[in-house]
Specification:
Elements lengths: L7 H18 L7 E5 L5 E5 L8 H17 L5 E5 L6 H18 L5 E4 L3 E3 L6 E3 L7
Parallel strand pairs: 3-4
Antiparallel strand pairs: 1-2, 1-3, 4-5, 5-6
Helix pairs in contact: 2-3
């Protein structure tokens, strides 16, 4: 879980994730997606289609597969969901549970944040940031 005070480096990385998502989305709405990696660096993405919900085991399996390349390079990746700002609390918490399970199985602490065009938030702790107008830094 991300707690206050948020470390400066993590704050910058998460701000980058929000900026990148806002730039990619533009004026259209992209489908929700799961991303694993470092924003601005090497990232693996998985589009979450509306074909039906994934159970916990499938979510954990997908996360572990997406994390393996980073962990092999001794990098603990960040995991983030990109989506519209409308409430998806149940889905966010289902992914948070899968992240916790995958981290335990992989032997590392994994963090999940939900990223929208103007904000990021840890669905477990509620810690996050919101911008009215996001400027390049």
């Amino acid at each position: 879980m991300i707690q206050e005070p948020v470390p400066t480096l993590l704050e910058r990385v998460l701000r980058r994730a929000v900026r990148d998502h806002a730039a990619a989305e533009g004026r259209c709405q992209l489908p929700p997606a799961l991303h694993v990696g470092i924003p601005g660096g090497r990232v693996r993405s998985f589009e979450l289609s509306g074909d039906g919900p994934l159970d916990l085991a499938l979510r954990v399996e997908a996360l572990e597969a997406m994390c393996r390349d980073h962990l092999a390079a001794d990098v603990v990746p960040l995991i983030w969901l990109t989506r519209t700002p409308e409430g998806h609390d149940v889905e966010d918490l289902a992914w948070a549970a899968a992240v916790g399970c995958a981290g335990g199985e992989l032997g590392v602490r994994l963090d999940l944040v939900v990223v929208t065009r103007r904000s990021w938030c840890d669905p477990r702790s509620g810690v996050g940031r919101r911008w009215t107008r996001l400027r390049r830094s």
